[in-house]
Design brief:
heterodimer, A: 0% strand, B: 163 residues, 6 helices, 12% strand
């Protein structure tokens, strides 16, 4: 009983952490100035946000003595870990090859060689 | 995609694992879904002949040892994004740099490009496999200056390239 309660508390913490980073990712997409920097926020925060929530669900399954759900959730987590940066790369590469210039600070424009 | 049926089989296995069901209706639905996805994807990647990513047991073992480091870096990357976007001043100074990371295998290129994207402040924009050049978007100058040292590059070389 106690173990069940502890595991449910762990689930709550993991899901809360996941939600926090989804929120941070959303704020990042809204506040950052251009496509490339927004992609940073969206990719990193979606990966950890989804990973943390999925891990929380696996722990929730384990608290009920159900481990097959946990394994399935881990498979999905690995898929997210692979697909999220791959999709970001596909988008960023398409943007770069179409000629989208990245945002730079006003004082950095023209001043430095790179 | 030179062998679309292989992708259909892989997607169908994934479907069956997730649904935990071999009932004809569910498998049929999975098969239809897998074929639709394979058709859609084949148009996206069909121009270049896809070479299989050869992975040896040693590489898998070393990758599993690399995972804790990668997870630690992903957490650090998220904290970095949180600090940046929740700061009212929004302290960023973006720059695109090119780094020379010679790698022999496709799987190492994929591993390094994705690792760079998931670690703090960096995003892989383009990879030139002939010149072994990675074009990387950096959120700040400090990150950009650390990239040529190639900390991740040496990790990936150890995981996928060394005997």
């Amino acid at each position: 009983m106690l173990i069940e309660a502890i595991l449910q508390a762990v689930t709550a913490v993991l899901v809360a952490v996941g939600l926090f980073f989804f929120l941070v990712g959303t704020v990042g997409v809204l506040r950052l100035p251009d496509f490339y920097s927004r992609t940073h926020a969206a990719t990193k925060c979606d990966t950890l946000g989804a990973g943390s929530i999925l891990l929380g669900l696996a722990v929730l399954g384990a608290s009920r003595g159900d481990y097959t759900d946990g394994l399935k959730v881990l498979v999905i987590a690995v898929l997210v870990l692979l697909s999220s940066p791959t999709a970001a790369h596909a988008l960023a590469r398409a943007a770069f090859r179409t000629g989208l210039e990245p945002y730079t600070l006003p004082e950095a424009r023209g001043g430095e060689d790179r | 995609m030179n062998r679309p049926y292989l992708l259909v089989v892989m997607l169908l296995v994934f479907w069956v694992v997730l649904t935990e069901s071999l009932s004809p209706a569910e498998v049929a639905l999975g098969l239809v879904t897998a074929i639709v996805i394979a058709l859609g994807v084949s148009r996206l990647v069909g121009e270049e002949e896809a070479r299989p990513l050869l992975v040896t047991p040693r590489q898998v073992a070393r990758f599993l040892l690399y995972m804790p480091y990668l997870v630690k870096e992903i957490v650090a990357a998220n904290i970095h994004v949180a600090e940046t976007v929740l700061d009212p001043r929004l302290p960023i100074d973006p720059i695109i740099i090119e780094c020379h990371y010679p790698l022999a295998h496709d799987v190492s290129v994929v591993g390094l490009a994705n690792s760079i994207t998931l670690t703090p402040g960096t995003l892989t924009v383009d990879v030139d496999k002939n010149k072994d050049t990675f074009r990387i978007h950096c959120l700040g100058r400090e990150v950009a200056e650390a990239m040529p040292e190639g900390e991740l590059y040496h990790h990936i070389r150890h995981v996928f390239e060394e005997d």
